[in-house]
Design a protein that fits this description.
A three-stranded antiparallel sheet has the order 1-2-5, with no helix packed on it. A two-stranded antiparallel ribbon has the order 3-4. The protein contains three helices and seven strands, in the order E-E-E-E-H-E-E-E-H-H. By secondary structure, the protein is of the alpha+beta class.
């Protein structure tokens, strides 16, 4: 059996009309996917209990700070403007520190991409 995985990716997110822009203007997010060991730092499970104390549901909370600072080493073509001041967002740490409310959806998409389980199975690979 051969397991195939991609550890790094230059990803063009579908966000804010990004994919409709000329290629030279598209935001490109460079991702470094976490290892199995690193995944322990990524999320916590919050259990929701009913009045009787029994677990009725659960919610997964992702450690956005950890993901952005450790797994987004580079961002291209993204400029943040807040109160008339422009600043290039060059990596996940810059994105994390942005005061621009417009980046929240991008952050959510990055977290979803880094935490998805879209591994390639053997039926997908041509032998």
């Amino acid at each position: 059996m051969k397991l195939i995985s991609q550890t790094k990716e230059a990803w063009i997110p579908e966000w804010n009309g990004n994919r409709n822009l000329p290629k030279s203007e598209q935001v490109i997010v460079h991702l470094s996917y976490p290892t199995i060991e690193q995944k322990e730092n990524i999320s916590n499970i919050e259990y929701i209990r009913g009045k009787d104390g029994d677990v009725t549901a659960f919610k997964i909370k992702y450690n956005t700070e950890y993901l952005l600072t450790n797994h987004v080493p580079k961002i291209e073509n993204l400029v943040d403007e807040v109160d008339g001041k422009e600043r290039a967002i060059k990596n996940g740490a810059d994105l994390l520190n942005s005061k621009n409310r417009g980046v929240q959806q991008l952050v959510q998409k990055i977290v979803a991409r880094l935490t998805s389980a879209d591994d390639i199975d053997e039926d997908t690979v041509k032998n």
